[in-house]
Write a structure and sequence with these properties.
Strand order of the largest sheet: 5-6-4-1-7-12-9-13
Helix content: 10-25%
Oligomer: single chain
CATH topology of the largest domain: Spore Coat Polysaccharide Biosynthesis Protein SpsA, Chain A
Bound molecules: guanosine-5'-triphosphate
Length: 378
Amino acid sequence: MKAVILAGGFGTRLRPLSCTRPKLIFPIANRPLLDLTLSRLAEHGVKETILAVNFMADTLEHVFGSSRFGMKIHYSKDIIPNTQAQAKACSPKSLGTGGAIKQAENLLDDKEPFLALNGDILTNANYSAIVETHRKLESLATIALRRVNNPSRYGMVRLQDGRYISEFVEKPSSGAPSNLANAGIYVFEPQVLKLIPKSQSCSIEREIFPKLARKRRLVGHEIRGLWVDVGKPSDYIKANKLWLNTQSRVHQKPMITGTGIEVSAKLKKAVAIGEDVKIKGGAIIGPNVSLGKKVCVGSGVKIRDSIIFPRTIISDYSIVEGTVIGEAAVIGKRVRIREGCLIGDNTIIHDNITLAKDVKICPSKEIFDNIVDSGCVI
Ligand code: GTP
């Protein structure tokens, strides 16, 4: 079986970190998010995967190459013909979820069903079981469904007879038809591709699924277990936390590849520590922290519920909570970074600075003064 992974979105909600890398290579316990998905697809017998790329396509191709876990990797780039691109000169040039799947058509089999996935989902879903439901019910399109508490963030469905999706409502502000959300994991028959216009922007969720639902050709398959849509910063931190905890239960030991940890430093479960990380005495790391390779942590530093990208330095007695810090940033001494902050690559924050909650700092900025307004972008 083949799979298409939607990998070309702009990841606007994770800016500024997604300005310099595609969302799908954001690390989860120090591995690219997409690597975890590819490994799971391979476990479920997928032989070839097509990455539907657009934004920073070259970076993805450089990281994943032409094979992974024994699977062939192909790349399908969003291409909008010039005339249309000119007509839409003010909007970003991308094909949307439907258009990008259509673009991959010539790399898919015309007789076999295929899996299609939103690439920004962290899950341990049983792909084989979804395919089995699809085949058993001779469905045209099958959508994995996940129960959620906050329907306004997702595409929500109404199920008839426990299996056919009769209504599809994208991000309802009120009156959601159920608490079953589109989990961004699909199985399609090749005929579905005929419903999608070629070389045009098209949303599979808004334009194709409602049509299939009306014809009773859309089947739902409920999944349980790990499932996080890595869209917003808090979800990214949550995904990292859930993955760290799952791995720590499975392996029963911390994920540590570094050896530069002083004896009086304390690691609180669950943590992932990359290669060549240095942690000075008295530091408390965790719970729910990933330190990328070559990160340096000073004496007495406290970090919890955070993700620190490679080569960043966090100096003595600083406190970092619920934050993502990009690559090669330098955090001074006694700095306090509160929940929800996103710090861009190569940022320098001077000693004794405090950042309010949800502050976003663009790459390569230098911060000399406290930032007191929560949510501000520098
Ligand atoms: P935001 O800008 O923050 O909404 O992020 P996004 O557009 O990257 O993510 P969204 O949740 O909207 O998209 C779901 C998945 O589809 C992600 O894995 C995206 O990379 C991918 N995707 C979204 N739009 C496109 C597109 O136009 N082309 C391609 N190739 N992939 C897309």
